[in-house]
Amino acid sequence: xxxxxxxxxxxxxxxxxxxxxxxxxxxxxxxxxxxxxxxxxxxxxxxxxxxxxxxxxxxxxxxxxxxxxxxxxxxxxxxxxxxxxxxxxxxxxxxxxxxxxxxxxxxxxxxxxxxxxxxxxxxxxxxxxxxxxxxxxxxxxxxxxxxxxxxxxxxxxxxxxxxxxxxxxxxxxxxxxxxxxxxxxxxxxxxxxxxxxxxxxxxxxxxxxxxxxxxxxxxxxxxxxxxxxxxxxxxxxxxxxxxxxxxxxxxxxxxxxxxxxxxxxxxxxxxxxxxxxxxxxxxxxxxxxxxxxxxxxxxxxxxxxxxxxxxxxxxxxxxxxxxxxxxxxxxxxxxxxxxxxxxxxxxxxxxxxx
Amino acid sequence: xxxxxxxxxxxxxxxxxxxxxxxxxxxxxxxxxxxxxxxxxxxxxxxxxxxxxxxxxxxxxxxxxxxxxxxxxxxxxxxxxxxxxxxxxxxxxxxxxxxxxxxxxxxxxxxxxxxxxxxxxxxxxxxxxxxxxxxxxxxxxxxxxxxxxxxxxxxxxxxxxxxxxxxxxxxxxxxxxxxxxxxxxxxxxxxxxxxxxxxxxxxxxxxxxxxxxxxxxxxxxxxxxxxxxxxxxxxxxxxxxxxxxxxxxxxxxxxxxxxxxxxxxxxxxxxxxxxxxxxxxxxxxxxxxxxxxxxxxxxxxxxxxxxxxxxxxxxxxxxxxxxxxxxxxxxxxxxxxxxxxxxx
Lengths: 354, 344
Description:
The complex is a heterodimer.
Chain A: H1 2-28, E1 58-63, H2 70-84, E2 89-93, H3 100-112, E3 117-120, H4 125-137, E4 142-145, E5 157-160, H5 163-181, E6 188-192, H6 198-212, E7 220-223, H7 228-241, E8 247-250, H8 253-266, E9 272-277, H9 280-288, E10 293-298, H10 303-316, E11 331-333, E12 338-340, H11 344-347
Parallel strand pairs in A: 1-2, 1-3, 3-4, 4-5, 5-11, 6-7, 6-8, 8-9, 9-10
Antiparallel strand pairs in A: 10-12
Helix pairs in contact in A: 2-10, 3-4, 5-6, 7-8
Chain B: H1 2-19, H2 40-56, H3 64-89, H4 97-108, H5 111-114, H6 118-141, H7 147-166, E1 171-172, H8 179-185, E2 187-188, E3 191-192, H9 193-210, H10 213-223, H11 225-230, H12 235-261, E4 263-264, H13 272-282, H14 294-313, H15 318-341
Antiparallel strand pairs in B: 1-4, 2-3
């Protein structure tokens, strides 16, 4: 019994030591500052043309969800960086949030401040439709970013990406390449994001449709959950399921980190891979050219920068330089561009950090 | 004092009782020596799944590459499940395992930690995991909080801290620290090192539970804390140690997930708590504590990993996988209840 009563102190000391060490680590290891933080503002293109000459002073309100993904973070960054390039623009971002109610009240505050124009990426198009409509009714044009409002009276212009088009671009890249190689009955594997989301279904449909035009079809598809870990898990199993793969399309570059790790661990090299979204990390991988990742198809967060430009044009009563019409269009769907080793140099500044 | 002595003698007896076949009804186990056959149901389930694999995918399933892959995939959740087994046998539950692993992986891959090299990264993951376990343990043992609530609080706050620390970004392991990654790329005798880590944790867990005073006390504390206290066991201290152990396992699991994915991320370990608890339960451990085995839990993990593998090999959807897992949990617990009722 006495033996037992002495033990606690000994272990206590051990644990105390561990706690102190953990405390030391806590202070030493939480910093996440890169020593040479690359300049983030390069993602917005250069200015040029008549439209960029300073005009009437305009106030642009901006509301977007809080960043839960590299892509969303890039949206806010791009919008702000673009606005800063114009001397005639006052940029008014509201606190980003993932809460519908908070976004509604934030937008309401922008309306009562009477901003000239409003750029909005809603958490949910349906649920923020009312407040967007309220802004339009108050005479403030709304630029709807990516997630569309169901009611056309709620926005002046929609600008966003093309999920179906992403699938099409990936399908064409893979189809063309396999056709050139003369492969018949190729094994084409697809790793999706969250299968239940409409955007995932659009991407898959575009992919299948484009492949069909080459006479190919998807051999196997499996959903991950947009996370590195699920990407790794699904890819590890899929690689076992198919001893020989010709091509692989992964919907999302963030989960792609896990997919690439799984491929590296399996030592497989016989196929090529196409990514999705266009993260800087994937582009660096493509540029290095020593892995299976050959291309990625974009869903560009630079759309936020374009939206700020459109907002400024609208507020100043100008049209788009290369269109004949006097006002900006009602809807702009951005193409999903294919980034390969040949053009990666041009895209790398536009890639977002995941 | 006589009472205490009796209790002390009682504790190991209880341990043995817990290990032994409380379920003499188990058809195959009946009449045999105790112990060896208590997991026969699970082994049969594994064998059945393997047969399904061989029949449905004769070219892809029974290959060494696939079987090694299954073990490597099982390593992360397997290590966590060993810790969870101890906590549950000790009468508690740890809901925070997935979040703590995520936090440990993020903490170990910050720019600052990475500047110290792979050894410090690994140490950091283990210390963060153990530290989180100690906090949960203190809240439960000395703060008298219900384990469910205390570890739920840890689940939420650890995930939040991980998100904050990483700014919700995926933190890649830098090339100079790829010693971490080599844990899953380097193979010894055909098996990647992460599988050896998994095996080492499992064996250590088995020894700790079955061959040490610590293990016997765990059974005693979980079976009847009051009796354990009367027997002279410092129940609160022991409870604290159990959660610290679970946290330690989360730290080890964080190293494995970093090796496998080459990243630290706040999204790692999503819903691991449910996977770990499910594996422990179908492994025959009582959710009320006092009885259970490490081997059963490991078999439970393998059953789940095998199901995922089989479904993907056969090109079936994730939703069907979830249904299959749910059905297995249901059947396992039903069998367990029958086994429980019979001896009383």
